[in-house]
Amino acid sequence: MGPSGSGKTSLLNVVSGRVRPTSGSITIGGAPLTKRHKRHLCYVLQDDIFFANLTLRQTLMYTALLRLPESMTHQEKMNLVDHILQLLDLKHCQDTIIGEVMNRGLSGGEKKRTNIACELLTNPSIMLLDEPTSGLDSSTAHDLIATLKQFAEKEHKTVIVTLHQPSSQIFYMIDQLLLLCNGQNAYFGDTRKVVEHFSSLGLPIAPNYNPADFILEQAKGSPEVQERLILGAREGHKLNFNLPENIKLQTTPSIHSLYSKYLSLPTVHTSGVSNNPCPWDGSCTTCHTQCQEYNKKCPTDISVTIDTDKKESPVYNKIVGEEEDSGRSSWSEETLSEASGSSSVCEEYPDMLWPTSFSTQVKVLTRRNFCVARPIILSWLNGVQTLVLAVIAGLLWYQAPRTEESLQDLQGWMFFSTHYWMLFILFAALQSFPAEREVITKERASGSYRVSAYYLAKMVGELPLTFTLPTVYFFISYTMMGWDNTITGFMLLFMLLLNTLVAQSVGLLIGAVCYDLQVGITVAAIFTLFTQLFGGYLTTRIPFWLAWAKYLSMVHYAYQNMNIIQFTYGLSIRCSTENSRFSSCVEYAQSDEETHYIPVKEILEENGEPLPLWMNTTLLIGFMIVVRLLTYVMLRYLHRPK
Hints:
The chain has helices spanning 8-15, 35-38, 56-67, 74-87, 108-120, 138-155, 168-171, 194-200, 211-219, 223-232, 289-294, 314-320, 331-348, 358-377, 380-396, 407-430, 432-445, 451-481, 486-513, 517-533, 554-569, 583-589, 600-605, 613-638; strands at 25-28, 31-32, 41-44, 126-130, 158-162, 176-181, 184-190, 238-241, 302-305. By secondary structure, it is α/β, with parallel strands linked by helices. The strands form 3 sheets. A 4-stranded antiparallel beta sheet has the order 2-1-9-8. A 3-stranded parallel beta sheet has the order 3-4-5, with helices on both faces. Helix 21 packs antiparallel against helix 24. The two termini are 24 Å apart.
């Protein structure tokens, strides 16, 4: 506990290993904090960060599939999800969406419990919760703390929370209290003895007064009172978050654990610090040294040592130098031995960097990305917009004749279609990463999956959604304009879809680079206007010193290809009977032939010397690949979670 700005969240960040301390050291069970320890530790953030349009059950299901080891079967993972829902009293709202401000879903208390449920799935030994009661009414806050208290006792877990002015009922549920004042220790010890401690410092509490309010008022009091509190607690330089003797921390569930009800896990009876170097009996008897190191005894307490010399901690020099936290849950160590046998555990140890394999991560994330993106991309508003625009375009170019007088109209439909869907897809993709950034940052910080798996799954999962609306538009508008033949139609559709993929690539890159959405929109607007101006339709008289710019316009290549396809494989364009602008038509007009057609070469050369069809297509695909690879680099290295 402590006033706002006293350092509660900072302390949790340091204890969890997410922030480098400026001094001191962190040990768990007497051993320096390492990645192996982090697998038994979960951190529930103060903010409830989820995908708003997923249901509660979907959120827990995807978390379980990503963060629980593959040695557990799918049914075991779903049983564990059901168990957590029952434990936190969330069964009644499991099919309700998470929701947001404009689309109501779960209540505040339900979101808090959902946040906790996602972390409980990994079977942590130590839970860190940053102000879980903030924004909740007193009754909901009491129920939440009571649930955590019950979980700590029944599941033999250590629960560390930061609280902001709790009620007296909640206050006396706490076993031990650390009071912070200006980033320093003002009290640490038994919660029921804090009033006695303050009285010994000459700060007696009034009768019938909430002790939580009283100690916070003193911690926010005058500088003299704050100094008295800090000096009174100065003797304790070491903070040990120990549990009572009957609630000792252990990594594996006891024989009566609620988890054991659903999972066939080895049972271990522990009391205090176990002398067995392995989390279960006999799993390391035939293992080599590396495996024995991996299966060390599990911690029983957290120790935060404050270094008064302000020397940088050598422990954290080691931690920050490692790769991202593996994010493996403690189920991994509990089930691997039983599932694979001790020898296979030793053989697979070097690859135990993630809770699931790359293919599993891609498969699960593809399903989740599809579910998240579907209501956004295929919203009723986008559907109505596409249908209305397709009908209007179809009416505007309805049954356009293949004559020289209508040539500019045909080219106008091709330019409008490529440019509109470039804008639509690019700006939709631009908002994709900013909307998901908080969730992805949280999941990356917990080591749930690889960035490459997320990025590949995002591209694959959204691919059919990206193609749906342009395809609907094309079939409606092009059919009303008049199909030449099936080959021409599907080749034009291919170029339209390829153009949308390139536009999506640019939008993803801008979204990955620009944290500020307004900056991203400005950059995207400049890019789209540039590519429109040099696309080859609005003007053909480009100054020679700007001629190079058209080769940077992706619409230029798509528009050129659509012209090549339409006029090469489609119906021929008849010459105008009078005042034709094509030289061959003028020559034909002087002859006795009744019908003349414009050569394809003259139509294409009217907008400059065109590149071949295959060259334009290759450049578009190459541009798309380079931009998508660059986007991955930006995601992987530019905005790494702290």
